[in-house]
From TrEMBL:
Biological process annotations from GO: methylation
Species annotation: Capillimicrobium parvum
Domain O-methyltransferase C-terminal per the UniProt entry, residue ranges: 51-258
Pfam families found in the cross-reference section: Methyltransf_2
Protein name: Mitomycin biosynthesis 6-O-methyltransferase
Protein's UniProt keywords contain Ribosomal protein: no
UniProt-listed PROSITE patterns: SAM_OMT_II
Xref: InterPro entries: COMT-like (IPR016461), COMT_C (IPR001077), SAM-dependent_MTases_sf (IPR029063), WH-like_DNA-bd_sf (IPR036388)
UniProt-listed Enzyme Commission number(s): 2.1.1.316
Domain of life: Bacteria
Molecular functions (GO terms): O-methyltransferase activity
UniProt enzyme class: transferase
Keywords on record: Methyltransferase, S-adenosyl-L-methionine, Transferase
């Protein structure tokens, strides 16, 4: 605790008593915007074991996680429900923390139906549905993730306006919605897989539907340590990468979208809006 007090997580008082600082307070599960689940996740042995093989990623450009565990993180968690639950709660912490600024950045209310592709336990979708009472949602993710999510949607009071669909975004996603959200999904993947995910969405979308990619901008050289270290984290674990807005724009074009706008959404995130290009114009 003394070490953490020296980093501002606690404040050491007389007599070796410790008080919470605002940073330490975020670790409480009843904090307004808790990040304790994220802290619990990054300390999991299987995760830092992958970081122990960082050199493999640096030498090869490939996932140290797959090298260490012989499987990608999604497959590993599908086989380890306890780790899946810890990871999904960590993602929900991050999504909750950024949801207000995300909703302020872009008028989601213009869309009647939204599919959250790789939406985890539905934290963002819950916030969208609460903010827009006429909106209908679809939570799409891997089977073990959506199975655990249904109860949370009901508990949040949006279960009647939100259905869950299990599947893989490399195969197909639900058709015919007005908007397709991909939050913190594309950065998990290298360019060929990211394009494949976007192409799956493109096939499901009508010509007037919108693609809403919510991701970090990697930022300029010598700045944005959060994005640069997240870039390393993406390389080490899922084998992905952070990107510039222009790099997302290039992926969009390859997959059949035009980048329309990219309003800043706080925490270094942007809502990167794609519009389907007519078939044959790529
Ligand atoms: C980094 S998490 C982001 C979750 C959520 N969008 C958020 O912002 O909190 C990536 C999500 O992609 C999902 N995912 C990974 N592979 C998938 C696949 N093949 N098909 C569908 N979802 C997948 C994971 O289960 C996970 O929920």
């Amino acid at each position: 605790m003394r070490a953490l007090a020296s980093e501002g997580v606690f404040h050491e008082e007389d007599g070796r008593r410790f008080a919470l600082t605002p940073i330490g307070d975020c670790l409480r599960s009843d904090a307004e915007e808790p990040v304790g689940a994220w802290a619990a996740f990054v300390g999991r042995p299987y995760y830092w074991q992958a970081w122990g093989d960082l050199l493999h990623s640096i030498r090869t450009g490939e996932s140290a996680f797959a090298h260490r565990h012989g499987i990608d993180p999604w497959g590993y968690r599908a086989r380890n429900p306890e780790e899946a639950a810890i990871f999904d709660r960590a993602m929900a912490d991050l999504a909750r923390r950024a949801s207000r600024s995300t909703l302020d950045a872009y008028d989601f209310g213009r869309h009647r139906t939204i599919v959250d592709v790789g939406g985890g336990r539905g934290e963002l979708l819950v916030n969208l549905l609460k903010a827009h009472p006429a909106m209908q949602g679809v939570l799409f993710d891997l089977p073990h993730v959506v199975e655990a999510a249904g109860g949370e949607l009901d508990a949040a009071g949006v279960g009647e306006r939100c259905r869950t669909v299990a599947g893989s975004f490399f195969d197909e996603v639900p058709q015919g919605a007005d908007a397709y959200v991909l939050r913190a999904v594309l950065h998990d993947w290298d360019d060929p897989e990211a394009v494949a995910i976007l192409e799956t969405c493109r096939r499901a979308m009508a010509a007037d539907a919108s693609l809403l990619v919510i991701e970090r901008d990697i930022g300029p050289p010598n700045a944005r340590p959060d994005a640069k270290f997240s870039d390393l984290n993406m390389l080490v674990a899922p084998g992905g990468r952070e990107r510039s807005i222009a790099e997302y724009g290039a992926l969009f074009v390859t997959a059949g979208f035009r980048l329309a706008e990219s309003p800043a959404a706080g925490f270094g995130l942007h809502v990167i809006v794609g519009v389907p290009m007519p078939d044959g114009t790529r």
